[in-house]
Design a protein that fits this description.
By secondary structure, the chain is mainly alpha-helical. It is 50% helix and 8% strand.
Length: 383
Amino acid sequence: MVQNLVDAIDLLVDADVSSLADAESIKLLERELSRFEAIVTKAVAAFDASGDWANDGAKGAAPWVATACRLPRAAARRQVRRGRMMRHLPEVTEAWERGHLSSAHLDLVASLRREGTEEALSRDEPLLVRQAKSLRFEQFARAVAYWDQMADPDGAEEAAEAQRARRDVYLEASFNGTFLGKMTLDPVAGAIVAGELGRIEQEFFEADWARAKAECGENASIADLWRTPAQRRADALVEMASRSALVPPEGRRPAPLFSVLVDWPTLSGRICELAEGIVVTPGSLVPWLGLADFERAVMDSKGRVEVSVTSRLFSGATRRAVELRDRQCVHPFCDLEGHRCEVDHVVPWAAGGRTTQDNGRLLCSFHNRLRNRERPPPADWGT
């Protein structure tokens, strides 16, 4: 069987890759790649259980795979760990073998398995698999986080506290004077830092774009910007530090603002997540209650209270309501953050469409322009 597989792959390698470059072939290849990974992982698990790796003096299956197959040790350990977990997650394993799920789905569900959730996970694994088959991976990750909170509330809060305890910032000068760093923050603190960093980075982008237009005219392109995105982020971090130095020690600290969406149990079930889509536990918000500004946004069955429905552009409370509802570009092949998107009229303004939450949706500038081109987007892209 393995030799037949080798022969089949040889045929694919020798084939014209352009014959495999259509959308249906890509989906089929990705599915079969996932199935093949499941088979290999299952075989590695059987090899691990057999103990044959000891014949070569290896201490375990992972060191043997890393050495014999020239894989990074971390990758080999991850493969062995997945193989062992497959025995405890039969429903996920079967879906993976059939190409419906990926190794990332297995890792995500496996991360739920602990003493406090083992019984509930055994009961609800089929439900999680059904959700995984119907949701985008990011949506499934949010669903899994909520399942974890409901199955083991105390354990979820302890995990959130442990996550916050792992906060760390490393910034040291190297031998040539260049500073190297790494940052680990919990979701709430990370949202605060990333939000301010992104705001300053956007300021720099607009300044760079204005400079490019001044130097190159209206035909300026991204290639004409004098800084790369990475350089703008680095400069934005330095700017954050410079601005903080301007605030006197006795001055009033500006309260951080981070948006938290909480549940409307009657219709939606439990919701407790940042506007960025990161699920947080209720307990993780407690340390910020006296330090942060909280934004109240009420979504009811009739829609949010609207302002200026005859206005040409979305602004103020109406724009914010759409941002909090959609949170990212609604095109199925895009995930640009909401604050960087435009609010598009579902029924165009020129056709009598009103500037209301119900008639608004977030679109990045690219997909907003795409709407006006001849080729129509997918039929369900705005739903």
